[in-house]
C-alpha cells in the first residue's frame, strides 16, 4: 500500500505544506470538545466577574479592582483557547503574523496573571498584618496605578522575549502551517525565574506571614467575643470579613501554584524527552484550566458573586439604578 497516498497536508495545494499528524478521529473530537468547553466556560465565568465588579458600585473596592484585573487576564486566556483548538490537527491556518500575535497575547495574559497574584497577596498582607493603616496605604487610585503598571510590564516583557519573532514572523517554521516560537535555554531559564520562581517566592512568603497573623487574630477574637461593645462587634465583623477574603484569595493563590508548577517545571527540562502527546496535553490543560477555576472559587466563597450572577442572568441588570443594588 502506498504510504504517500495516505499522507494529508495542511495545505494540499502547497508542496511546502506541513503534514498533518495521524490521530484517531475519536481522540480529535474528544480533545476539541474538552478544549471548547473549557474555553466557553472560562470566557463566560470571567465575563460575569468583570460585569459584576464593573457595574455594581458596592464592589468598587481596592481588593475587587485586583480581582477584576485578574478576571480580565483570565478572560483572554479563555479566548485564546479557541485558537489553541487549531493545534488539534497539527496545523496553523491563519498565518505567521497571527501566530506571533497569539503567542504575544498569551505571554501578556500569563505575566499579568502572575503580577495580579502578587498584588492580591500584597493587598491581603497589608489588610491582615497592618489593618489600621490599610485604608490609607491601599487606596483605589493606588491600586489602579499598580494594575496599569502590571499590564505595562507584561507588554514590555512580551516585546523583549518575542522581539526576534516580531521582527520576522515564521522564521523558525520548517513548513507552511506551523506556529513555532523558539527560545534558547538561557531565555527559558530567565522566563521561569521571572514569571514563576521569584513571584511564587514572594507570594508564599507574604501568605505565610498572613496565615500566622490571621490565626493569632482568630484566636484573639474567640477569646474576647463575649466582651465586645456595639463598636467592638463592628470591628470583629470587619476582621472576620478580612480573614474570609484572605482565605478565599489564599485558595486562589494555592490553585494558581498547583496549576502553574507542572508547566514551568517541564519548561526547564528537555522538552523532547519529557513531552509526549498525553503529558503535553495534561500539562497545558492544567495550565489553562487555572483561569476557569478562579471564578468558580469566587462563586463558592463569595455570596456577592452568586447574587450578581442572578441579577445579570435574569437581566435585572438592565433596569435603571441597578448599579446601586444592595448585593453585600
Automatic annotation (TrEMBL):
Coiled coil: none annotated. The keyword Transmembrane helix applies. It is found in: Cell membrane. The chain crosses the membrane at residues 29-53, 65-86, 92-110, 143-162, 192-215, 249-269, 281-301. Keywords: Cell membrane, G-protein coupled receptor, Membrane, Receptor, Transducer, Transmembrane, Transmembrane helix. Residues 45-298 form the G-protein coupled receptors family 1 profile domain. It holds the Pfam family 7tm_1. GO terms for cellular component: plasma membrane. The keyword Membrane applies. It is a multi-pass membrane protein. GO terms for molecular function: trace-amine receptor activity. It comes from the Eukaryota. Belongs to the G-protein coupled receptor 1 family. PANTHER family: HISTAMINE RECEPTOR-RELATED G-PROTEIN COUPLED RECEPTOR, TRACE AMINE ASSOCIATED RECEPTOR 19P-RELATED. This is G-protein coupled receptors family 1 profile domain-containing protein. It comes from Mastacembelus armatus (zig-zag eel).
Amino acid at each position: 500500500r502506498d504510504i504517500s497516498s495516505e499522507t494529508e497536508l495542511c495545505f494540499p495545494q502547497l508542496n511546502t505544506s506541513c503534514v498533518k499528524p495521524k490521530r484517531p478521529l475519536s481522540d480529535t473530537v474528544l480533545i476539541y470538545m474538552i478544549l471548547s468547553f473549557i474555553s466557553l466556560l472560562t470566557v463566560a465565568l470571567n465575563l460575569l466577574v468583570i460585569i459584576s465588579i464593573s457595574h455594581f458600585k458596592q464592589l468598587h473596592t481596592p481588593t475587587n479592582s485586583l480581582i477584576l484585573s485578574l478576571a480580565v487576564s483570565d478572560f483572554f486566556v479563555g479566548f485564546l483557547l479557541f485558537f489553541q483548538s487549531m493545534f488539534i490537527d497539527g496545523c496553523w491556518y491563519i498565518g505567521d503574523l497571527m501566530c506571533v500575535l497569539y503567542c504575544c497575547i498569551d505571554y501578556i495574559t500569563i505575566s499579568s496573571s502572575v503580577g495580579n497574584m502578587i498584588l492580591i497577596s500584597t493587598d491581603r498582607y497589608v489588610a491582615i498584618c497592618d489593618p489600621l493603616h490599610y485604608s490609607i496605604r491601599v487606596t483605589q487610585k493606588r491600586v489602579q496605578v499598580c494594575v496599569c503598571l502590571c499590564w505595562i510590564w507584561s507588554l514590555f516583557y512580551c516585546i523583549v522575549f518575542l522581539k526576534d519573532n516580531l521582527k520576522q514572523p515564521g522564521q523558525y517554521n520548517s513548513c507552511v502551517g506551523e506556529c513555532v516560537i523558539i527560545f534558547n535555554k538561557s531565555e527559558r531559564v530567565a522566563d521561569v525565574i521571572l514569571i514563576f520562581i521569584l513571584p511564587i517566592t514572594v507570594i508564599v512568603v507574604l501568605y505565610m506571614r498572613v496565615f500566622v497573623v490571621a490565626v493569632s487574630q482568630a484566636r484573639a477574637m474567640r477569646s474576647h467575643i463575649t466582651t465586645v461593645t456595639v463598636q467592638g462587634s463592628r470591628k470583629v465583623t470587619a476582621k472576620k470579613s478580612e480573614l474570609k477574603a484572605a482565605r478565599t484569595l489564599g485558595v486562589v493563590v494555592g490553585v494558581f501554584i498547583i496549576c502553574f508548577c507542572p508547566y514551568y517545571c517541564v519548561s526547564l527540562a528537555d522538552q523532547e524527552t519529557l513531552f509526549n502527546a498525553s503529558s503535553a496535553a495534561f500539562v497545558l490543560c492544567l495550565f489553562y484550566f487555572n483561569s476557569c477555576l478562579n471564578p468558580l472559587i469566587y462563586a463558592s466563597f463569595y455570596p456577592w458573586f452568586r447574587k450578581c450572577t442572578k441579577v445579570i442572568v435574569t437581566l435585572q441588570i438592565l433596569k435603571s439604578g441597578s448599579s446601586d443594588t444592595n448585593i453585600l
